[in-house]
Amino acid sequence: MRRPQLYLLLPLALLLSASRSSSAIEVKVSAKALERTLRAQLFEGPQGRYYIRGDATSPCYVYAESPHVTFMQDRIVVHVHAKSKLGTSVHGTCLGVSLTTDTDVSLIPEAEEESIGFRDARIERLSESRELNFILAPFLSHKVPAQMKVNAAVLMRQLLSRSTETTGYSLSLDSLKLHSLLVEGESLVMDADANLKVN
């Protein structure tokens, strides 16, 4: 039997509010939602850039920008555009080379109590520069997965916080336990047990 979607769960919760202590739910998360999370948590700098080395005023720098999240088979793919000036700073100028590349890392989603986490980061595409790859590899395989992590309970509580204004009922989430996360087509499907309260 298919589990109810989040948008169907809220009216159902009104009818079954006191009958069960926790209920199984299925929530679908889009690639765009994960992309917004990544942009908000990592690419919040000037012009939507994340500086891996240097900053907006440095003559020599490496930064990533324009993150794009898609799903491929059972993995989440994060594509970023990287731009760099590698070399030595002399009198406010970077003596070296400028490189631009598109890079990809793929991740497996993982349920972590209340959070959507990621494991098995696999770099799918890097640049042809060994020096740039040395800088990009830790960013892609460690920083990106860590910053994409989402506490689903906090997110759901934020969504429910305005329920009184929109429905006339006060809905609250007492607990959430994620059991599995799977990529299915165009969605990341989250199976969980949730305890909702209606006042």
How would you describe what is shown here?
The chain has 199 residues and is α+β, with helices and mostly antiparallel strands. A six-stranded antiparallel beta sheet has the order 2-3-4-5-6-7. Helix content is 27%, strand content 50%. The N terminus is likely disordered. Strand 8 and strand 9 form a beta hairpin. It has five helices and nine strands. The longest helix is centred in the last third of the chain and has 19 residues. The radius of gyration is 21 Å and the shape is elongated. Keywords: Signal.
List the helices and strands and how they pair.
Elements: H1 6-15, E1 23-30, H2 31-41, E2 50-53, E3 61-72, E4 75-90, E5 93-112, E6 115-125, H3 130-148, E7 150-151, H4 152-160, H5 163-167, E8 171-184, E9 187-198
Entry summary:
Residues 1-24 form the signal peptide. This protein is α+β, with helices and mostly antiparallel strands and 199 residues long. It is 27% helix and 50% strand.
